[in-house]
């Protein structure tokens, strides 16, 4: 087992992480959720403490005041029970709702939206005594044991010192009325709870860091596993399709960026558009820098118009260039004459335009 762990030196791949997430294997600290829920419940309980005490005292006052054995009936008993349930519900509803909301929020923050149905499937391997023994002596079991001792020790220490500090005041509770005594006990519990939450927060932070480390360690892969996964993904039709789609998008983007650098765009005029470029110092023959059909052809013409690239309508040449020449390739010899005529016409038009510009004459 140690030899296998030693070989797992590679970080987990994205596919490995995705599969683990589907199985519910995520870095999540139960301690962090518990501390957050406890803190929220303490704050809400402190805010509603006065209202809760008044509600309970009011209920008992009314019950005692109307307690009359001679008028006791089943209907009266049922009414008192309904009032008791309603009073208890009003006290507990804000606390329970807060606990639920905070618990869900903290879990979503830790792991994000997750619906791992595979984690609900029965795993009979867990019933194996050897597996249970191995888990019993694992690092995780020692960490859980440390957390339990930490929580028991810290809570005991805080409760002892809190009661010790408040001992003189607690001795006078018998002299107080019920509301005042409940207030004193409530303040003591509130103070102890905040101190417990403070020290438990340190444990929660350490536990979350350990959970992330433990998950990362369990997902590590050997070099051979990485190679095998790469081979599987390489022949995965869906992944290959996505790669090809991404390559087409990038190629199309580069092609559109090349249109403004073209010398001319030959069109069908509506169905095909081919942008050609020629530089006597750099090229043996003109090359096709962009081409498109239908919507893509329309987009090429739009870019050409915005970049002031001449558009020449020559349907036979446009169709031939589109079908015979790939982007970035030179035109074939049988199209030299037709392309040369187009470029000669464009160069002549550009020359006349420059002459007219020097003479201050504008094109109509």
Please provide a written account of the structure.
The chain has 14 helices and 4 strands. Helix 3 (30-47) packs across helix 5, helix 3 (30-47) runs antiparallel to helix 9 (178-219) and helix 7 runs antiparallel to helix 9 (178-219). It folds into 2 domains: 2-232, no CATH class; 255-359, name from scop. The model has no long low-confidence stretch (mean pLDDT 78). A 4-stranded mixed β-sheet has the order 3-2-1-4, sandwiched between helices. A hairpin with a 4-residue loop joins strand 1 and strand 2 (272-277). The chain starts with a helix and ends in a 5-residue tail after the last helix. It has 364 residues and is mainly alpha-helical.
Number of contiguous helices: 14
Topology as H/E string? HHHHHHHHHHHEEEHEHH
Task: Please tell me how large the radius of gyration is.
Answer: 39 Å
Q: Describe the main β-sheet briefly.
A: 4 strands, mixed
Helix percent band:
55-70%
Strand content: 5-15%
From the spread of the alpha carbons, the general shape counts as: elongated
Low-confidence stretches: none
> Pairing-aware structural class of the strands and helices?
mainly alpha
Domain count, please report it: 2
Could you tell me the mean pLDDT?
Answer: 78
The tally of strands reads 4
First and last CA, distance: 84 Å
Q: Could you give the order of strands across the largest sheet? A: 3-2-1-4
